[in-house]
Amino acid sequence: MYDYEYKAQEVSFGSLWWPTDTTKLWAFLDVVMDMKIPFIMSHASPLAQVPDTVREKVETYGLGLLSQWTPQQTILAHAATGWFVTHCGHNSVIESVTHGVPMLCWPFQADQPTNAVHLTDNLDVAYELIEVRTGEHGLKPIYRTGRVPVGTVEAMQTEAKDILAKAFGEDGARKRANMKRLQLSVVESWHDNGPSARALEELMESL
């Protein structure tokens, strides 16, 4: 029997966001397919346009699914889902933590870059994709690491191969264990007298 646990990944940028440089997204999917990683990609954003060549390539691959809408929490809750490629919006982060799924962070703006740094550097439950960055500000030096993004498709593919190899290896298993501990702490916070339960009760009493 095929052991499917944690073997697949979900790719979703929410219902509004979408990469400005889509050549990097299609090149990322090429890496995923070259590494024989099953995936589901949601493209709900009105900005999303999936070329026919990409659709044909995914169909030929046979282990990928492109869908304009997907039930994100259902997918995250499935035992086959090992990683979540996300823009790191607030709702997506909360859902990923709730289901104990570590993340590959592809942030754009607003709260997303900060969320990605916190998940990657502080909580150690994610990897951040750096070479997907674009624009004058996106390619500036990263002060916390000293790294300067190259920003090319080739650099992104090299980084993606390295990160995906780690994610589906021992280092990824370590991050998943960290995520499971974080998931448990979130669940326990809603138990009787837990901090989240108390905060909600105090809010209700103040109304």
TrEMBL record:
Keyword RNA-binding attached: no
InterPro entries: UDP_glucos_trans
Coiled coil, from the record: none
Domain of life: Eukaryota
Signal peptide positions on this chain: none
Transmembrane segments: none
Transferase in keyword set: yes
GO-annotated molecular function: UDP-glycosyltransferase activity
Keywords: Transferase
Name of this chain's protein: Glycosyltransferase family 1 protein
Organism name: Ceriporiopsis subvermispora (strain B)
